[in-house]
Amino acid sequence: MSANKGAQAPGNTERVLTALPLEDDRDSLSVLPLHIIPLETKQLRTARMIKNVRLESAIELFRNDEGTGSGQYYIHELGPVLGWPQEGDVPDRGILMKLALLHSYDVFSLRISLREYGIAVNELDGLKLSAEKNETLTGYMGKFTRPLLTQIFGNDVEFQDFSDILALFKNPDKSRALASLQQMADKLEIEIMQVPAFLEDYGDIFLSLSYYRQCLDSMGPIMESFLDSLEDIRKNWQLKNDRNTMKTCDMVEDTMNNLTAEITGRFENFDRSTNEMWDNLSAEKFRRVEALIKNYHTTIGGVLCALWVKMDAFQKLFPKADSGGPVKRSEFIMSEMKQGLENIQKIEGSAPMLAGIDD
Q1: Is residue 10 in a domain?
Q2: Which of 234, 226, 228 is nearest to 332 (CA)?
Q3: Do 122 and 141 have their domain in common?
Q4: Domain boundaries, position 61
Q5: Which end of the chain, N or C, is more open, meaning fewer C-beta atoms within 10 Å of its C-beta?
Q6: Is 350 helix (H, G, I), strand (E, B) or coil?
Q7: Among residues 104, 126, 148, which one ends one of the domains?
């Protein structure tokens, strides 16, 4: 996710220098490619909805080929640009206003939120991670796939991931494939024809957990650098007597630390529930774990999206330890970093209490 550099806000038609991501939009926490939404306005089909550094939703109508320029507008500014009538309902405006309320645009949160709002999608692949992202999550998925494979095929299993299982089921040796399918069905107490659907659901729910974990881990070094910069600000002779700046630094630091701790705590709870699931594994236990994790998709996605946007903006502006200096960094914190933090806390605070699979 990117934020406009400089003070220019959405609505400015000049090309604003920014650092747009090169990866597939489907893999982003903070970018929604609008071509997956059935909109009537032609110009919107190539646009993206993004979260800016203030955690506000904006429509990015254009960017240059190198990904170094961006034309962003808030929804209320789009009418004259897109030729919408001044009076009367505009269906696309209504859809965009609903999308703007979402706290995260990651595919797992979107599946839930779009269904709740009754918004359809043009293509189901738009709600799946890219093949490249899936590959980068292989290491995270290992801790979830290995127990399943061991449960079904024993400790001597030679398989590494789901592709190996599926390959077995497609094996020309039909008797072996059938036996393996039946063994899995017996373990799960389900019909043999339900096994492929179970595997798909199992892979997807733990793919989501792996995705969120990777997002949090990837922010770790940037978060550490940001917190270190707060100490530099506190020690600066020009800033240390500025009570407003010191108070804001404390608030931002506490918020970042608390949110990171909350998300980490949720991951630990998911790990405990997953481990419990392997005691007398059954389809029912899996469905409880699946529901437990899915119920927190929008919370985790929303908090991680907000943290990601903030840390990404900080990294873009201050790529090195000595970039900008304490004064410039304090200006960024006062003008951009603190904006919207109260909304992140509301997202986390509104989530239901954590529970286990036996609750």
Answers
A1: no
A2: 226
A3: no
A4: 16-126
A5: C
A6: coil
A7: 126
